[in-house]
Amino acid sequence: MDMAKQPPPPPEKAGGGARFGFTGGLEFTSLTYTVVKKQRGAGGEWEKKDVDLLHEITGHAPKGCVTAVMGPSGAGKSTFLDALAGRISSLDGRVALDGVEMSPSLIKRSSAYVMQDDRLFPMLTVYETLMFAADFRLGSSVSASDKKLRVENLIEQLGLTSSRNTYIGDEGTRGVSGGERRRVSIGVDIIHGPALLFLDEPTSGLDSTSAHSVIEKVHDIACAGSTVVLTIHQPSSRILLLLDHLIILARGQLMYSGGPKEVTSHLARMGRKVPKGENSIENLLDVIQEYEQSEFGVKALAEFCLTGLKPPKLTATYGAEGLSTVSSIAQTPISGLGGGEDFDHSLRSQHSRSPWNGAQLTPSRRPKNKDQHNNRYTPEIVMGTPTPMSSAYTVNEDDYLTPTTRRAAVATNAATGAPGVGINALGHRGKFANPYVGEVWVLMRRNFTNIWRTPELFLSRLMVLTVMGFLMATMFTKPKDDPQGITNRLSFFIFTVCVFFFSSNDAVPAFIQERFIFIRETSHNAYRASAYVVAGIITYLPFLLLQSATYAAIVWFALRLHGQFIYFLVMLYASLLSTNSFVVFISSIVPNFILGYAAVIAFTALFFLFCGYFLSSHSIPVAWKWMNTVSTMKYPYEGLLMNEFNGGRVFSSQPGLVLTGDDILRQLGISTVEDRKWWMVLYLLGWAVFYRVLFYLVLRFASKNKRK
User: Fold this and answer.
1) Cα separation of 113 and 200, whole Å?
2) Where is this region: Disordered (predicted)?
3) 289-319 per-position pLDDT tens digit
4) What angle do CA 546, 503, 530 make, to 5 degrees?
5) Which of 123, 195, 272, 436 is surrounded by the fewest CB atoms within 10 Å?
């Protein structure tokens, strides 16, 4: 750019949010997110190139207002929202709330993020869903009666009273409507009164009426004092009336930041006039598309938004088929530095030297007091919300204290002389609202509620094992102590091991269906990943014991098996535990249940091949010995054979041939030491713990809703 065309120097920067004309809300400065992509070069070879998904975005989202992030497809709206919410690991720039710079961990504790997809448990009612959210987010310091009161108020204020006891529902179960489901998702994330609320496409997939109802409730939340930022694609005219502040992006660059009513004047400063009867925002999006298709790209509009340098004018031409194309014409020359028509010096321009930017930005609408006729409510969308109402207030971590807990914290610090520590939105010290045991208890209650409402998973396993038990009891009834009886026993035991392994395969979709719920809840520290794992184990224990006991009781007496019945039951129980742990681990590392089933079937075949039934452990080639060790079918197979054949019991007394149980075990390469069979149980339980630890590590480090 020629020196004569340099823009005038920007006004001096004020501290905090004053330079944007506001004294409260979310401030972001020079947000840049760069990724490395492979692209074909001029020679056809693949080259690595840095691409900015976000580029030097600076602006603000005022407190008490609804800030909408808009732009064409691929503009970077969701990426920008993730950047503000601290969900991008390698982000350059600064994010501050009320002038205080926010770290990602502090953003988690003081914000809520409503995803585009409504990930909720389908067999919980609206009330139960919000109550479990209250248990997770409010913690044990809030009494059960206060939680119920807050949930009841939230249900009323979100317009969910008529569907209070209705199941959420899914494709197979009729439940609440799409708009109600979206409002439940919002309620789950605002139950703790967050200072920041982020929503990704909250109107996606909803009809006009439902979409307006959702945004209306979101606007009420903003009027309660929260800072609300949402992405939206094509808002209706009614929804536009509820939006207080706009941020328009294109190609990861800032095109406009200001109020909806100022879009017309923004276009006028560019030399564009909005046609009569046309929406000014849609007209700006059309202008953005025109420049994007031109040789200048959207960078010219970003430059205008940043410095006030007017973009070059475009003119439309028509091809042979009548399709319009966009070409450019030269700029008007500038006479003197900072003069001429190519710079915007209007009163409302952020580049003007006039002191307009000291004006206070406030939302134009506030909810009225509760009225029986218009069904509107007071601004306090969540009873006892800790967000400061004053727009001039400066936030810090101690602000998120209820009066009682604040006095208690002050008294404690005064008595001990200890400095204040980080406290989250309701006065809970540390990252989590509940103690560890409390988290496990709430998760267990929710798990048992879901199982009670959807008993098909465990009933189907119980039915399979019951039917298989009767089949085994009728096919191998009272086997004789001869060579054929020995073969029958071996076949029975290996089939039993396979049945117990395959019976857990239907658990593959279990975590896959819950994965996004887990990610949403743990992204804001609702509970620990380890608590989720422990609660899952405890929940499964009684059901797995019932399945093992049912099968054992059917086959043990019908086949007149030998050894200890308690060992037979314990080994089957341990087998189900290890198999269930393995399947849950597999389901945590695959993207969908189809690949999950394929992986489980493949590993089952390998474990079956190396369990010692086809080749004894001594006959397996040295290079494949490790597969015999990792096969979780080996331990129940050998343990059940030890329990059946161990001892001097004679199985064949043909003339000149005496075959005892120990002889059979030695021929199979299995130990004859009595206590060795209990070691098989311990090995199997060790594998169960190992797979659960791997499952925890995947949850803890690989299941984060964060861009890398």
Assistant:
1) 8
2) 337-383
3) 888 888 888 888 888 888 888 888 876 554 4
4) 75
5) 436
Q: Is 448 exposed, middle or buried (0-12, 13-18, 19+ CB in 10 A)?
A: middle
Counting Cβ atoms within 10 Å, is residue 188 exposed (0-12), middle (13-18) or buried (19+)?
Answer: buried
CATH topology of domain 25-37+47-116+193-307: Rossmann fold (3.40.50)
Average pLDDT of each block of 10 consecutive residues along the chain (708 residues)?
Answer: 44 36 76 81 72 87 92 87 85 86 78 85 93 90 90 90 90 84 89 88 86 89 89 87 92 90 89 85 89 85 85 64 48 42 48 39 44 40 35 37 41 39 40 89 94 85 91 85 83 91 80 84 87 93 93 91 92 94 91 87 90 84 89 92 82 67 83 86 95 93 67
Neighbour tally for 328: CB within 10 Å:
15
Say which DSSP state 609 is in: H
Domain ranges, ordered by start, for the chain: 25-37+47-116+193-307, 436-611+688-704
Query: pLDDT tens digits for 559-597?
Result: 888 889 999 999 999 999 999 999 999 988 888 888 888
Which pLDDT belongs to residue 663?
Answer: 83
What gap in Å lies between CA 198 and CA 66, rounded to an integer? 10
Give dist(CA 382, CA 533) in Å, integer: 31
CA distance 183 to 223: 17
* 3-class DSSP string for 87-116: CECCCEEEEEECCEECCHHHHHHHEEEECC
Question: 243, 51 in Cβ contact below 8 A?
Answer: no
Give the chain's mean pLDDT. 78
Phi, psi of 478 (to 5 degrees): 45, 65
For the stretch 225-252, what's the b/e string if a residue is b when 16 or more beta carbons lie within 10 angstroms of its beta carbon? bbbbbbbbeebeeebbebbbbbbbbbbb
The answer to whether the CB of 677 falls within 8 A of the CB of 567 is: yes
The edge-to-edge listing of strands for the beta sheet with 245-250 is 111-114, 196-200, 227-231, 66-70, 245-250, 253-258
In the numeric block, the tokens 């020359």 are attached to 333
CA distance 233 to 225: 25
Task: For the chain, give the number of residues.
Answer: 708
For 57, 286, 365, the CA distances from 302, given in Å and listed in that order, are 10, 15, 30
> What separation in angstroms does the CA of 558 have from each of 463, 565, 643, 649?
18, 13, 17, 20
pLDDT tens track for 341-364: 555 544 344 444 333 343 344 444
Query: What are the residue ranges of helices labelled H in 158-271?
Result: 178-190, 208-223, 237-240, 263-269
Closest-CA residue to 452 (of 151, 213, 125, 694): 125
Residues 473, 558: Cα–Cα separation, whole Å: 5
The pair of three-digit structure tokens given for residue 526, joined into one six-digit string: 């609702």
Query: Could you please report the per-residue DSSP string of 310-356?
Result: PPPPEEEEE-TTS-EEEEE-PPPP--STT-SSSB---TT-TTSSSGG
Task: Extract the tokens encoding 462.
Answer: 């119980």
For residue 520, the surrounding DSSP H or E stretch is helix 508-522
